[in-house]
Amino acid sequence: MEQFIELLTQIDKFELIRVIFWGLAGAVSFYFSIGNARIWTSISIGFFLIFLGQAYAINPWVHYYKLSAFHNIVGTVAIVVITHGFLEYYVFCRTFEISGKKVAVYFFSLLILASGGIFLFINPTPSPNTIRNFKIVENSIWVFLSIMNLELIRKIYTAIKDSPISRAFIAFGIVFFLIFLWRGSELYLQIFQWDRDWQDIIAVSSDEVSDIDKFAGRVNFAMLVNKYAGFLSSLSVGGTFIYLYRLLR
Amino acid sequence: MFLLPKGNPLFENLAVGMLKLPGVISKLSTGSFTGYASFVFQASTVILVFKAGKLVSVMFEEKNGNRQTGFEALSALSYQMVGASSGFLNVYKLSKDLTMCIHALLQGEILYKAQELKLIDIKALLEKIGSDRMNGCLRIYTDDRSAMIFYKDGAPLGFFHDGSQDIETTSNESQKIAGLPGAKIDLFSTQGVEHLMELDLLEVVNVQNIWETAVAHQQSEFNKINKAREERQKENFAGKLAVLEEQVKTIVVETVGKVGCGIVDKELTDQGGNACLLDETNVVKFLAGIERSAKLLISATSLKVMMELLSKAITGAKSEH
Predict the structure, then answer these.
(1) Which residue segment(s) compose the domain that B262 sits in?
(2) Total domains present in chain B
(3) How far is B238 from chain A (nearest CA, A)?
């Protein structure tokens, strides 16, 4: 507990607030998944998993690299599950077919997470560079699937635009736009090796010199976008689920 | 149809609906019956004259005066009996001679038809009947009254007039009618009783076949009518279902949006078409499907209202059906 409190005092306040908001969004979406139709389960479970993915910031054992990498796997699974949910909703809008069971969504989500855990367990402890690679893969998938989800949401909205729930999909559109900015800006920094992880790596274990100072303006802008878009996306997810809950009440 | 003397009634007012013509004829034939059987329907009368169990003449007469005899008359009688919901049978036993006269009246040779009495020397005619030893029937009538005189070998057997039940021995009524203005006569003659014995329609006509043909025809007509009725009912049912389907779509679309139309179509297809709306089991599945889909698009409150409206519309249509 003391270790946890010490961690909280060390953590960036803004990052802490972001994690707390992701926590709230995760709680709302998880609660939403319990009392609602099966198709919402994947979407809400996915958003809940984002919180688990982001919770590394407050995890007192995150210095264990395997655990840190596991947060990235959880984050990756989160966007995959969300995308699966929106894809199912889109299929429903086109065919009006609803299949499967809620419990299967919970089970397969857990199964994928367990597989990720086993993958980490049977492999060597990841180095800081490997952890950074995990983050790059996670961000790449997030960026790609965010664009895909924006397109799915547009199509779903077109199909149901005169339905009461259609406005919630506009909200989801805003959510994914913010997520795209959040993850995209981080990926941008990682691709050009301007991210903090890389700076830390080269500071201690490489002779490589960073060109970050030459592009301080765009680096600062990307970091600013990453900071606020990440925060706003957590806010928007929580708000969207509360709005959705009210629409479906 | 003119009235005939009743003689000795064997059966009266027997409901025709329960009878089969072959059975009736067979009974009268095997019983060596002499007399006539009259089948009285709403629009026609049929007379079957028997002499010692032999069917000597058949007359089918419609209210409009159309007449048929022999095979055609038996066939028409069969169709009438098979299709009749009302009608009754009378059977009267008569003497051989009177039966002969009835036969003459129905199917005898027509010597005079609608002849005005004032243009005829009635005395001379009566003398001729006597001198020619004529067998037959002289019918004297006006527009509203009639009388008949039956002759055997030129001698009057008896007198019969409208309003009487049986043969009379006096000619008073006949004379009265003959004295009325506009009185006319018909004279029918036939050969003697011996000749009648040579006649038997049952030898040349297969009553059973005639009856079976009529029954088959009636059955086919009945089937046609039933089929037409069923088709009308089907069309009617399909029309009602189409109206109900539209009602259901309107309710769902108004609550869920245009996408509701697709939801209804999909659920109807899954349940085998719009007939499921009036089926106890399938309508439950249909409503469950609609509810499950609508749950993804509208609030629980709107869903409840919509489901109530749907149930009401379907229940209303069911009660009309």
Answers:
(1) 238-320
(2) 2
(3) 25
